[in-house]
Amino acid sequence: MSLAHVLLGLLGRAPASGWDLGSRLAGDPALGWSAERAQIYPALRRLLRGGFVALRRRRSSKGPPRREYRITSAGRREFREWLAEPLEIPKPHAASLARLAFLEKRSPETRLASLELYRILLSEKLTHTPPGTTAARRRRRMLLETELHWADAEIAASLSGRTLSPEGR
Amino acid sequence: MSLAHVLLGLLGRAPASGWDLGSRLAGDPALGWSAERAQIYPALRRLLRGGFVALRRRRSSKGPPRREYRITSAGRREFREWLAEPLEIPKPHAASLARLAFLEKRSPETRLASLELYRILLSEKLTHTPPGTTAARRRRRMLLETELHWADAEIAASLSGRTLSPEGR
DNA sequence: CGGCAGTATATAAATGTTTATATACTACCG
DNA sequence: CGGTAGTATATAAACATTTATATACTGCCG
Known about the structure:
Two copies of one chain form a homodimer.
Chain A lengths: L1 H12 L2 E2 H10 L9 H13 L3 E6 L7 E6 L1 H11 L11 H7 L6 H20 L7 H26 L9
Antiparallel strand pairs in A: 1-3, 2-3
Helix pairs in contact in A: 1-4, 2-3, 6-7
Chain A binds a DNA duplex through helix 3.
């Protein structure tokens, strides 16, 4: 199970609560994993039962008491073993990519509109992605840039394919 | 559920059996979705019950009778509606990417070894990925190329960071 | 001081995915 | 003719993920 290991990895940097981990996971796509908090809380419980993390309750000025977890040495060992497993090229698994795969099934107009929307999403993501300080972040940024180029090229192709369409009224 | 819609999309190109669909899905990463056959067979049953596909049994010279499905007009409608849903930037969800995100936690030696292994996987994938005939395939290929550049850059950086290591004996 | 907004944890139910295993049919080899 | 390799379908069990909902605590605004 990767979620547990990613959580261990994050806890290796600093102790955190389930809430914190949810925010970090959501905020850093370069981590390569995402999860809802509803999944994180039970995962932390399992890690606690397994002795991979330790718990300290702290009351906070805002909201109910925080349950802060920190990684144990057993957790560090487990994480290291997971980290050493062999890499492979990930298979994409995303509804948006599946929709893009059927772009050619759509009318030239909606195809262009989809590409333009996707392009906007990409450029927004890019402006909120500062130049990377880690290999994974540099990777993420380069891929976003490439995808933006791709979108531009496809938009251009789509436009030039339409040059004979009714222009204006 | 995206799997069902991807299957409808594939069946829109040509009728196929569950086996065929499994092969196509496995063979084309640009489709943006992957699934085991154990998931495909029940999905096809549900599509059949829903009237989105029609079934014809055909015995084949090899193996047990094939159950060939073809899309119905209800299926086409359902697919078109799914296709029109808004795109978003996919959140990555892959163990390998998560491992890459913690590259910096590893020793310079294993970091370099991981990058080199990953680089090899990328270049193998690339040689088996012909230049794309669809937008999604072109996208996939460009991203693989970029990732290869990234790996090269990271390997170079990793090597130059090691210039003062013991060289040779 | 009542209610709202934000932080924080939690759980159930539904849904989706993976892994392991079983089975059937045919062709071909030895 | 028996075994095995390849095609094809199928199901159960285990596991993971998403969605919806509930609850608690605090500060602050009106």
